[in-house]
Write a structure and sequence with these properties.
Elements lengths: L3 E5 L2 H7 L7 E4 L10 E8 L2 E14 L1 H8 L11 E5 L9 E2 L25 H4 L4 E2 L2 H14 L5 H5 L6 E2 L6 E2 L10 E6 L3 E3 L1 H15 L1 H6 L2 H8 L3 H10 L6 H8 L2 E3 L4 E3 L5 E8 L2 H15 L8
Parallel strand pairs: 1-3
Antiparallel strand pairs: 1-7, 2-5, 3-4, 4-5, 4-6, 8-9, 10-11, 10-14, 12-14, 13-14
Helix pairs in contact: 6-11, 8-9
Length: 307
C-alpha cells in the first residue's frame, strides 16, 4: 500500500529547485523510507507561513549515480544525497500555495503522540526536519487544496527556457539581474572579479577619487580631526584614510567594511560586458547609501580647484 509523506525544503532550496515547470526530481538523505508508488508533498516556511510547493508522485527511487543516468546528467550536477526521487510521467507543476489556515487540520502518523504541527513561535521548520508520514485524512486535505489551485503548464510554457538567476543569501529571494528582477539586497554585478556595475559603489568610487586628489589639503588641515568631526560613521573615516592616497578597489574595500557577499552563480557576459559575472549582495544597502552621502559632505568641504 502506498504511503504519503510531507518533506520540508529550506526556503532557498525551495526557490531554487521549484523554479522549473515541473517537479520531476527531488533528493534527500531522508527519503530512505520512500518507495515506488509513494507520494511526497513538498513544503517550506516563508515569513512564518507554511507553504505547499507541490507534490511528487514517485515512479522510482535511485541513488545519485543511477538518478544522474536516468536524468541524463552528470552525477556532480545533482545534490549529493543518498536518495533521489523520479516523478511519474515527468512530474507535476509546483503550486506555491499558502496553507497556513490548513495547518491545524494536518495530522501525522505517530506513536509518540506528536501528530500535529505547532506554528507558534516560528518553529514549524524544526518540526519538519524529519520527513513525516501523513494520515489519509490529511493527505485528502492537501489534495483538495492542490487540485483547486493546480494549473497544468501550457505547451508554450514548457518550451520556455528556465529563467537564469540566483538566490539572495540574505532573504532567499530569487534574483535575475539581467531582467532587472532583484531584491533589496542586490547592489550590483561583479565582472571578472573586479569591475563592479553598481550605482551605490560607483558613487562611492567617484567621491573617493575626488578625495584622493585633495588628500594634501586634508593632510594640511589635520585630516583625522576633520574627518572625525565631519563623518557620521567610523567606517567612513577608515575608508578615506585607507583609500584616499591610492586607487579605490571597490570589491575588496566594500567587503572588508560591510557584510557583502558574492552570488554563487556565474554568468558569462557578452559584448561590452564580456567575461564572467556574478551578483553582489549587501546585508544593509542603506548603510552604503549613508556612507556615500557622508563622503559627499566631506568632499564638499574642499574646493575643487584650490588656489
Amino acid at each position: 500500500m502506498s504511503r504519503i509523506f510531507m518533506s520540508y525544503w529550506k526556503p532557498a532550496t525551495a526557490t531554487a529547485e521549484a523554479r522549473t515547470k515541473r517537479l520531476s526530481h527531488a533528493s534527500s538523505n531522508q527519503f530512505g523510507r520512500v518507495e515506488d508508488g509513494d507520494t511526497v508533498w513538498l513544503v517550506t516556511v516563508r515569513s512564518g507561513s507554511l507553504e505547499l510547493i507541490g507534490k511528487i508522485e514517485v515512479e522510482s527511487v535511485y541513488d545519485q549515480e543511477d538518478a544522474a543516468e536516468r536524468l541524463e546528467m552528470a552525477a556532480h550536477d545533482l545534490r549529493d544525497d543518498s536518495h533521489h526521487l523520479i516523478a511519474t510521467d515527468g512530474g507535476l507543476a509546483p503550486v506555491w500555495l499558502d496553507i497556513h489556515e490548513l495547518e491545524p487540520r494536518i495530522r501525522f502518523i505517530s506513536t509518540t503522540g506528536k501528530d500535529r504541527l505547532d506554528l507558534s513561535g516560528g518553529r514549524v521548520a524544526n518540526q519538519l526536519q524529519t520527513m513525516r508520514e501523513l494520515t489519509p485524512e490529511s493527505a485528502e486535505i492537501l489534495e483538495e487544496a492542490f487540485q483547486a489551485n493546480y494549473q497544468e503548464p501550457s505547451d508554450e510554457d514548457e518550451e520556455e527556457e528556465e529563467e537564469p538567476g540566483e538566490i539572495c543569501p540574505f532573504c532567499d529571494a530569487f534574483n535575475n539581474w539581467g531582467e532587472m528582477n532583484t531584491c533589496e539586497h542586490h547592489i550590483g554585478v561583479v565582472f571578472d572579479g573586479s569591475q563592479l556595475d553598481s550605482d551605490i559603489a560607483n558613487s562611492l568610487q567617484i567621491v573617493l577619487c575626488s578625495l584622493a586628489e585633495k588628500m594634501d589639503q586634508i593632510e594640511a588641515m589635520g585630516k583625522k580631526q576633520l574627518l572625525t568631526k565631519s563623518a557620521a560613521d567610523k567606517k567612513t573615516v577608515r575608508l578615506v584614510l585607507e583609500n584616499g592616497n591610492s586607487d579605490f578597489n571597490d570589491i575588496n574595500t566594500l567587503t572588508s567594511l560591510f557584510d557583502i557577499r558574492e552570488g554563487e552563480m556565474t554568468v558569462q557576459g557578452e559584448g561590452m560586458l564580456g567575461g564572467s559575472a556574478c551578483s553582489l549582495f549587501s546585508a544593509d544597502p542603506g548603510e552604503l547609501e549613508s556612507m556615500a552621502k557622508d563622503l559627499e559632505r566631506i568632499d564638499a568641504l574642499f574646493p575643487s580647484d584650490p588656489a
